[in-house]
User: What shape does this take?
Amino acid sequence: QVQLHESGPGLMKASETLSLTCTVSGGSINDENDYWGWIRQPPGKGLEWIGTASSGETTRYNPSLSRRVTISMDTSNNQLSLRLTSATVGDSAIYYCVRHRGAYISGFYNPSFFDYWGQGTLVTVSS
Amino acid sequence: EVVMTQSPATLSASPGETVTLSCRASQSVGRNLAWYQLTPGQAPRPLMYGASTRVTDVPARFSGSGAGTDFTLTISSLQPEDFAVYFCQHYINRGPWTFGQGTRVEI
Assistant: This one.
């Protein structure tokens, strides 16, 4: 059973860099068939996909965040990390670490739905 | 980017009732559609993928249907633990993957 656990600062100031770590157990982030990513949910709002990484492919980012976000993989510690630069109050959200299941879609192997989620970690950016 | 629109935003119901949630995509996504349940304090729970395939251990009272641009999630015989927020998500192409804005099912 895959388990994901997010950790991060909880409270930070605007203009700083938001940094989160996700520790994965029950699965290897080094498996080329698996994808791993981040999703966030601002207070009272919906879900927003941030980005998806795989050891076998280029990391993909939401175009709305791509200039500020970096997702990296630490295969030796089986951890996924998220960095979001120049944080604003609008980046306040619950951040979820997810496994993005791979599947054959129209003949191509691609990420599909998010089959494992962490509990999420609340990040508040203060002005 | 595919825009996902859910309706209604809020749905009031009582335990034992059957409810139907709708999700519409701005372009065809085939059957590449998933549903999730969000309950405060818990990890989001995937319910359905491929529009109508239940994730392991999801009760049979949850059913999904649709293809192309119009999808529904039906919850039969609502249980107290079903009062939550439900999101749909498409997974065509190689991203960006987008969600609907959610439907809150409340008592």
